[in-house]
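DM from R.C. (forwarded with permission)

"hey, sorry to bug you on a friday — could you get me a structure for this? deadline for the figure draft is monday and I only need the backbone to look sensible"
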Amino acid sequence: MQGASYADQVGGTDGDRDVTRILFVCTANQCRSAMAEAIARRRFAGLPFAFASAGLIEGGRPMPPAGVQVAGENGFDLSGHLSKRADTTQLRGWDVILTMTREHVRELVAADRELWPRVFTLPQFVRWLDEHPPSRHVLLREWIELAGSERPRSDMIGSNEQDDIADPVDEPAEAWRVLVAELTSEIDSMARHLVGDRAGAPLDAQFAAR
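My reply, with the result:
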């Protein structure tokens, strides 16, 4: 996985300036962030974007069987997935960091305050794009550094149903299907803002075509 500083960690990233690098983060990297990475990789296939995922606790955990099952239903083979931990001191190279809850944002910013402009929950980032559409002629990171720094930090206090994506780790397959639908909707919306007509077909259309 790109950006791995150790076998079980995800840290800094470098490389082509024209490639936008997005890191998904959740608690353990067993469920939400791993599924988001898989969905985003397919949605942005062939475009100058790189995706990875990580958790905030020790790595080495597989995805639960119900998650592997639902991933397979949607064309993703995550049977060999092992979670990785985010090295919170080495994340400044990521252009955007998208978390699954406000709590994750708080933990990342507490570890490195310089991350603040570029850390959002996934749903919040989509709303932010709705309200502050970036110019197609600027690098995403430059736009984020400018526009994101003006966000009120009070937005990350507590929890909020609009921002927090539920963890299905101990839930049956149906909860995982809800997760996939929610992540797919958010990532489709993100793609429409970031790449417009260059994006592939929305994932729900891809599923219907199979």
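R.C.: lifesaver. Strands lie at 9-10, 20-26, 49-55, 85-86, 96-99, 119-121.
me: no worries. The longest strand covers residues 20-26.
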